[in-house]
UniProtKB/TrEMBL annotation:
It comes from the Bacteria. It holds the Pfam family HTH_18. Keywords: DNA-binding, Transcription, Transcription regulation. SUPFAM superfamilies: Homeodomain-like. This is AraC family transcriptional regulator. Residues 171-258 form the HTH araC/xylS-type domain. It comes from Nonomuraea maheshkhaliensis. Transmembrane segments: none annotated.
Amino acid sequence: MPAHRRSAALAPFVAALSAYDLGPGGVHRGLPSSTISITIPEADSLEIGRLGSRERFRAVVAGLHLDPAELRQEGGTRGVWLTLSPPAAGALLGVPASALSGQVAELADVAPVLDYLPERLATCRSWPQRRALVEEALLAGLDRHERDTGGELPATLAALSALSALSGTARVQEAARRLGCSRRHLSGTVRGALGVTAKEYQRLLRFEAARGGLVAAARAGTVSLAAVAAAAGFADQAHLTREWRAMAGCTPTEWLRTEGLTGLTT
């Protein structure tokens, strides 16, 4: 299948698919996310430190999480990284996002049919080849899911509607009103689909908005934490800093420095 057709078919499910390079030392701080991530090193394995424990993975799937992780890759520091929308877990991997919430696991354990990917990716000689291999594997998963469900995706559509409503407002009650349902019904839908509460999902969205705002402002030359906080929906700069300490394990300015971004102001 041509590249543009593969990408179009996967667009509702795949938020990002890219090559990565952890750089000197092969270490990266993994931040809380409202998406499901899959990391496949080109060589060796990946060590993930989280919640006081460390584990090694040949290829790793991480569900929605509200805490940071440290990714360390010895030897080769490059690989393939992709993020999936929560409903994509069932459609592409065959497991609900709720089963992955707060977890990190071997890709082969979550989706045994994908256990060949690390070895095959290691034989690819270019990024286009790697990208095509991953996209074909995901499309095969989508085909299997559609055969198993007869093409019906009611749960997926309900989850997508709930997530869209939550991303469009800062209050769960307002999202429920827009959907024409009770807050309890919306909360149950989100918890069942994602494994996190509706408020926790909005907390992740706010954190991600701040992260994007910080990066954009730093690249523009100057970061005003107060402005980033207001744009992302935080009460004030202090609220932003507290959330970053709790969810990233550092302050926003500390994170920007570790990422090599400058232009810091308060």
